[in-house]
Automatic annotation (TrEMBL):
Species annotation: Streptomyces solincola
Keyword Ribonucleoprotein: no
Span of domain GS catalytic: 92-343
Role played: Catalyzes the ATP-dependent biosynthesis of glutamine from glutamate and ammonia.
GO MF terms, alphabetically ordered: ATP binding; glutamine synthetase activity
UniProt cross-references to SMART domains, sorted A to Z: Gln-synt_C
InterPro entries: Gln_syn_GlnII (IPR048091), Gln_synt_N (IPR008147), Gln_synt_N_sf (IPR036651), Gln_synth/guanido_kin_cat_dom (IPR014746), Gln_synth_cat_dom (IPR008146), Gln_synth_gly_rich_site (IPR027303), Gln_synth_N_conserv_site (IPR027302), Glutamine_Synthetase (IPR050292)
A biological process from GO: glutamine biosynthetic process
Family: Belongs to the glutamine synthetase family.
Subunit (UniProt): Homooctamer and homotetramer.
A GO CC annotation given for this chain: cytoplasm
Name recorded for this polypeptide: Glutamine synthetase
Catalytically driven reaction(s): L-glutamate + NH4(+) + ATP = L-glutamine + ADP + phosphate + H(+)
Amino acid sequence: MSIKAEYIWIDGTEPTAKLRSKTRILAGAVDGVAALPLWGFDGSSTNQAEGHASDRVLRPVFSCPDPVRGGEHLLVLCEVLNTDMTPHSSNTRAALAEVAGRFAAQEPVFGIEQEYTFFDGERPLGFPAGGFPAPQGGYYCGVGADEIFGRDVVEAHLENCLAAGLGISGINAEVMPGQWEFQVGPLSPLEVSDQLWVARWLLYRTAEDFKVSATLDPKPVKGDWNGAGAHTNFSTRAMREGYEAIITACEALGEGSKPLDHVKNYGAGIDDRLTGLHETAPWNEYSYGVSDRGASVRIPWQVEQDGKGYIEDRRPNANVDPYVVTRLLVDTCCTALEKAGQV
Ligand code: ADP
Ligand code: MN
Ligand code: MN
Ligand code: MN
């Protein structure tokens, strides 16, 4: 039986990469991701090559059932390589694989909260033509046709993620009309990142059938409207076992050039979103605190109560590359925990 394999990859568009995909017909079922064939594409059409040497290689790194086509059909997430099999400069997964491997013994785990906004043409879904809806206040986790826009799409996306076997852990309506969130994790750094990219692809693909678009724009409406983030929840085994390691991680993120090293890699346009208003900390001031949604990093109250658990980095933009944010958090925090002997 022919299998339709949807090969998905991350392109080279600056400053924020886009997802691309195309279909390959396989003669029959394939046993695991390693058995899926390499493929190629025209890198000159994706900002990944010049026309005179345009071929780039797709290497499958993660696959799952395709919930859109059903049956035995597959989604195949790929990394992009040069023709000499070295990682292409747009391939941020390769660097994460190295760092995650180096610190695997600390068992880092992530849960990422992906916020996004539906658009109907030029306007966020639920914004009246030529005007604005009632100010923010009632929309977050709301119910009813006066507050909720796009729930049919959201439910279909959730169903698709579950049918694909992704580690999605919840959904909620957000603070601005037409704005929503789903969470992926807790999973290892490579798993959470691969699965978040596939969940994003499924979001766009699901919304396509409803004739709406979804965007990860971190500030889709200027003014007194919440931006869209990707709060990144993080723990190591030591953090899941004791409070000392939680504090070590929070302190490490504030040391020297670390705040800026992180923030400038947390998604394009971050200074528009991290203004200090709308439940954010200013992009150029690092802080952490228990229960504090105005801090850069929040320690959930339950974590203080239990004396163990995880931290929430609230800074990443919705358009962050998960391969980058997980690499930076593992590198900064696991290096400090190792130095402190808290492993
Ligand atoms: P918020 O209250 O900030 O909206 P959410 O419930 O949306 O929080 O997201 C919390 C995320 O943290 C979930 O994805 C969850 O899986 C993840 N999480 C829970 N425990 C851990 C842990 N020990 N390490 C990392 N992530 C975790
Ligand atoms: Mn959340
Ligand atoms: Mn949220
Ligand atoms: Mn959060």
